[in-house]
Amino acid sequence: METILLNKEQHVATITINRERALNALSTQVLTELDQTLDQVDADRDIYCVIITGAGSKAFVAGADIAEMKDKNAEQAAEYGAFGNAVFRKIETFRCPVIAAVNGFALGGGCELAMSCDIRLASDQAVFGQPEVGLGITPGFGGTQRLARLVGAGIAKEMIYTARNMKADRAYAIGLVNALYPSEELMAAALKMANGIAKNAPIAVANAKRAINDGLQGNMDEGIAIEVKEFGACFDTEDQTYGMTCFLEKAKEKNFANK
Asked: Catalytic pick from 112, 184, 222, 238?
């Protein structure tokens, strides 16, 4: 990989967009290598949580590669948007939780990448925005859909229509970001959360993620039916028996088998 770094520590994988000179902009190469890296992580069943971040201190991802997009025709642009959306949808539906550690600019495709993750932790110096209409286009990697679902239609429309950047404290206030940290503490905080998630039963966490994501697509009754299905499925696992036994026996340490 030329544009992606992958690191694994215990049960946590960290994926770093490594195109610092271009502020980690999302070229076709970056998206292709990110897609391949996700498949590599997915194949490693010993990974229970993933962190995505950007190289350097200036940018998470400052957007898509404008130079690459500029001369596309409508058909080529639609294909590019479809590919980016497919990669981000893979993140959104990934088998285990994905945490975005937003260490700087998260603009356009960068904001959309962060929104495809389950949880967003950010540096207090991070900047968010969907500036696409100022370039003569709309968001193309899920921004019109995920932003409205995360912060409400009114604020999403304000961000997209005005194309204004948003500082980290405002992003936190509207619920776009889960928590803010000083820049030097961000990755440690992300790793602490990821390791905390990884200590729990991986199948149960995956089932909970699926229940939340799928349930949000329907009404409450449909969501409850999905929850009941995922809840019941946990009782076919060794981890359920082990976890409940540990609770009843007041065991202080647990080591789930992911079975």
From this structure: 112
Q: How far apart are CA 147 and CA 149, in angstroms?
A: 5
User: How far, in Å, CA of 22 to CA of 35, rounded?
Assistant: 19
Q: Which one is catalytic: 132, 185, 222, 227? A: 132
State how far the Cα of 125 lies from the Cα of 57, in Å rounded to an integer.
Answer: 9
To the query of whether residue 68 is one of the catalytic residues in this protein, the response is no
DSSP states along 157-199:
HHHHHH---EEHHHHHHTTS-SEEE-GGGHHHHHHHHHHHHHT
Closest CA relative to residue 30, chosen from 114, 117, 110, 133: 110
Query: Per DSSP, what are the bridge partners of residue 51?
Result: 14, 99
Q: What tens digit of pLDDT does each residue of 70-105 get?
A: 999 999 999 999 999 999 999 999 999 999 999 999
DSSP letter (8 states) at residue 243: H
Stated length of the chain:
259
Largest CA distance in the chain: 65
pLDDT tens sequence across 155-198 = 999 999 999 999 999 999 999 999 999 999 999 999 999 999 99
The residue type of 197 is I
Residue 68 tokens, joined: 């690459």
Three-class secondary structure of residue 217 per DSSP:
coil
Could you give the residue ranges of the DSSP H alpha helices within 49-181? 66-69, 74-92, 109-116, 143-151, 153-162, 168-173
Is 132 catalytic? The answer is: yes
